[in-house]
Amino acid sequence: MSQPEWFDWAQSERKVSDYLQEQDPLLFTAICQLLFDCNPMVIPLMTEPQGYAPEVGSILRILPQCQSEDDVREVLHNVFIQWFSAEFAGSPGQYGEAANKLWALWVSQQSE
């Protein structure tokens, strides 16, 4: 029996995530914690920040292209749509707090 198409994509994204975590473990951990604290999808089963590691890899791959908090909100929403579905990801508005905090973190990282 062959793997579903999304399985290969998810495996590839997890490899990217692992690589990015190795490159900047502090930033990676901070973003996991940020998403855990904000919980934009309201996932009650998420019990630890590292549960967001696969999504953080996808976010970090795109984050350098962002020019504003609005861009970050769009990236967050799109990443969660990719990983889950549009139905489970909810509306872009759910990602406002996380986008605000992530943009501030990213800008501070770039100025160091």
UniProtKB/TrEMBL annotation:
<protein>
    <submittedName>
        <fullName>Uncharacterized protein</fullName>
    </submittedName>
</protein>
<dbReference type="InterPro" id="IPR023162">
    <property type="entry name" value="Apc36109-like_dom_sf"/>
</dbReference>
